[in-house]
Amino acid sequence: MLNFSLSYNIKYMGFGFNLLVAFILFPLTILLIVVWLFTRKKNYGKLILLIWLPVFALILLGTITRFFTEKKQLNRDDIYGEYVIDRNMYAGKQANWQYDHFRFSITEDNKFTFYCTDKEKVLKTFTGYVDFVEGYSQTRIVIHVKEPRHHVIDSTPRLFRRLFSFYYVFYSPKYGNVFFVQGKWKNIN
Question: Is the pTM of this model over 0.85?
């Protein structure tokens, strides 16, 4: 899941920013508050606002920027579901043919099922299970299917993240890279 809390942003603003806030802005603000309490002049309150407004604007800008540039962080629940060929990656006849002939699913009990199809008709299934490998920056999967395996799922898939989604790439000796995205199969005609 994506994390965009204020403390997350301040944590990654940098060491120099933290020094500026801790040793310059906080003491200056306390000094201005004390002076304001004794003099009761509104200019000191305006000066405090003038000092802290850019800081909060910078934090807000960092939050917005991070939201639109940071790639999706995945967990197991994100990976469960149905997958179809990504026809947008390399659009054309080959992608459309693959879309009508290959898809797979991963269920919450870690069951993996690869379908060889002719459009909506399932011709053959290859079943097995998925292991989740933790310890990488992203959760990875290893597919265990009994022999004989289909050439599309013969390799360990590589996960690639996008801004708000992700896709898997399998290497097939017949087709090269085969791209799968999460989604339900629909007739493209």
Answer: no
